[in-house]
Specification:
The chain has 238 residues and is an alpha/beta fold. 21% of the residues lie in helices and 32% in strands. This is Dihydropteridine reductase.
Length: 238
């Protein structure tokens, strides 16, 4: 396993609670849209075993041509040891990235694509939308729906409806409106539904989509293949 040590080159305050850390790209480091990586802080591999409290599974919120690896995360006032250390890091500090992989690349199957996310989960979808804007081959249209109760919506410069690009972006701040809209979107029985958020959020969305007749193979989750059955193979009659 290759561990890439790299430096923070910029810290962007997206909202009062959300920061994006832009990292230098190591020479042979590559990734694609929808990728996640293991993001680790100094000292994580100092002992005999990796210190898991200094490692987090994070989405990469940028594309390679942006020349920085973007890690976008919410840091609340009361937070974990990992987030506390992260909050105090500065430009020039070193961090590590390893085990990078994409579970949710943009499928180009001449279908409508629906991106369902909660809060900072939108960071996973930012590269998919940018990739679509640059090359819309074999994607009919994209509709993004994000719920964020903080009302500090993310990436509003990119997640802005653009009819000429066949892109719709919706933000809601409550569950009732969100799930009503998911039901409306699920009227498209041939669409592809990407879902990113907490495990509880995934389960709730899958239940709503399955009740509306959406099949498991139409639902894309940012999970390893072996984890998918745990979320997608439940009996609707239960």
């Amino acid at each position: 396993m290759q561990i890439y040590w790299t430096k923070i080159n910029k810290i962007i305050e997206e909202t009062p609670e959300v920061k994006t850390y832009l990292l230098d790209c190591p020479e042979d480091f590559t990734w694609e849209e929808g990728s996640h990586t293991h993001f680790a802080l100094e000292g994580f591999n100092a002992g005999d075993k990796p210190n898991r409290s200094l490692i987090r599974h994070m989405s990469i919120s940028t594309l390679p041509h942006e020349n920085s690896i973007g890690i976008t995360t919410r840091i609340r006032e009361q937070c974990s040891e990992f987030k506390t250390i992260l909050r105090n890091l500065e430009v020039g500090n070193e961090v590590a990235i390893f085990k990078t992989h994409s579970n949710v690349p943009l499928k180009r199957e001449d279908k409508n694509v629906y991106l369902l996310s909660s809060g900072v989960g939108l960071a996973t979808f930012r590269p998919l939308v940018l990739d679509y804007f640059e090359r819309d081959d074999n994607v009919n249209q994209i509709h993004s729906l994000n719920i964020d109760s903080s009302k500090d919506f993310l990436f509003t410069d990119i997640f802005e409806s653009a009819p000429d690009k066949k892109f719709v972006s919706q933000f809601v701040d409550n569950r009732k409106d969100y799930y009503e809209e998911v039901k409306n979107l699920a009227a498209d029985k041939d669409g592809l539904f990407y879902v990113v958020g907490s495990d509880e959020f995934l389960v709730q969305n899958i239940e709503v989509l399955r009740e509306q007749g959406i099949k498991p193979e139409q639902i894309m989750l940012d999970k390893h293949e072996q984890e998918l059955p745990e979320f997608l193979s439940f009996d609707l009659s239960i």
